[in-house]
Amino acid sequence: MRVPRTFVFVDLSGFTNYTAAFGDDAAGRILSAFRTIVRTVASERGVRIAKWLGDGCMVVAVDQSDAIEFVLDLDRLSNEVCAPLTVRSGLATGHALLFEGDDYIGSAVNMASRLCDHAKGVEALMPTMHIERLPAGVTANSVGEVELRGFPGSIDVVALSGVPQAAESDTSDLWTRTPFI
Predict the structure, then answer these.
(1) Are 126 and 29 a contacting pair, CB within 8 Å?
(2) For residue 152, is the peptide bond before it cis, meaning its omega torsion is within 30 degrees of 0?
(3) Which ranges of the chain would DSSP assign to H, the alpha helix?
């Protein structure tokens, strides 16, 4: 079954070198803090963590705006907690094959992964052709044409930046509402 989704790959840049320099325990503390932030932001922005990938993860969103807001919130919140490491990410939108009920296969998945690999420092990269609508407070700055392994030709890419509007969460009153029947 093919489904339209936005895919995000996130990576703690410099994790391997940090582990070598400061040891497994220090790296484990940063990774634990990073995963806590990812879970929190994913919950606030309504995206799903599809899988953990060591010092990174793959996130899936039904709405592209939610994915963009997730990435930028994650960048901002992890800057202090994960220092000196930075978060890089790649986003891509498209149809993908829902595989065995819990994984995705498709060009958009691969492109998001390759863009994350291509990102430097604190970058959130996205192909220009995939932008549907930017959330309020978010800008797209041209990176130019990049070549990604496995994709023919160059792809026009932007780096996302800004501070998206706060998530509208109505979960504070969950325990006071009458349950749905």
Answers:
(1) no
(2) no
(3) 15-22, 24-45, 64-81, 107-118
